[in-house]
Amino acid sequence: MEFATMSAKLGSEVHIIEYADRALVAYQENYIDSVVAKMTAEGVYFHFKQAVQAVEETTAGLRVTTAQGLELETDYVLDVTGRIPNVENLGPDELGIAYNRSGIVVNEYLQTSVPNIFASGDVIDKNIPCLTSTASFESDYIAAYILGVNQEAIQYPAIPNLVYTFPRIAQVGVSVVEGRENDAYRIVEIPFGQQLKFQAKLEDEAHVTLIVNQNKELVGASLLGNEAGEMINLLTLMINQKVTANDLS
């Protein structure tokens, strides 16, 4: 989505072939719908529920064929189907270290199946976002654990993530889907794009969704807007500091 946005802005004809029935399934659906609608209006073509079957060279460039019968002629293909941890060449089998397709298996102390060998970063099997900051946090934790400074299980802070589309999408903490499925949470929606400041920048669609727990603590947030990257950092700080509505008042 990010490269598609940039390429379209630079004047390229862009086609996105997606196996799922919508783009960016991990993010708030109505925000994604807004971004997809805007990208479509700018000339990006979306092909959902399509499984790429082959990419072949032709005299003119490349031909992409899907199992559903879609056929596209293009001069460039960008494969963004995700990353698989490259663990085989690290010799885990020789050391008896357990791993799977998602990476090296670790416990809550980041120990592998060989207790005196630890692992961190994108190479481990985890549900935490694979970011540089996450890998650094894990490595610092391992060092503290080995030195005896911290013997507690790893506790991750709220970790934000951002999609560089136009407008941008950001989220952190408890998701909107989790919030709606659990009565312990309350969802607050703020269409801040209605403020004059954002209307002047043609950002009428700018919006934030907040998830609050029963203690009135902010536990999750989702943002749509070109300033989402800056705003999500402040909301992340509030989540990690367990800021309540009473604190803000």
Protein model, in words:
Helix content is 27%, strand content 20%. The chain has 249 residues and is an alpha+beta fold. The protein has 3 domains: 1-74, FAD/NAD(P)-binding domain (3-Layer(bba) Sandwich); 92-147, no CATH class; 164-241, FAD/NAD-linked reductase, C-terminal dimerisation domain (Enolase-like, domain 1, 2-Layer Sandwich). Strand 1, helix 2 and strand 2 form a beta-alpha-beta unit. The longest helix is centred in the middle third of the chain and has 15 residues, at 132-146. Its EC number is 1.8.1.4. Keywords: FAD, Flavoprotein, Oxidoreductase.
Quick tags:
Dihydrolipoyl dehydrogenase; 3 domains; 20% strand; 249 residues; 8 helices; FAD/NAD(P)-binding domain
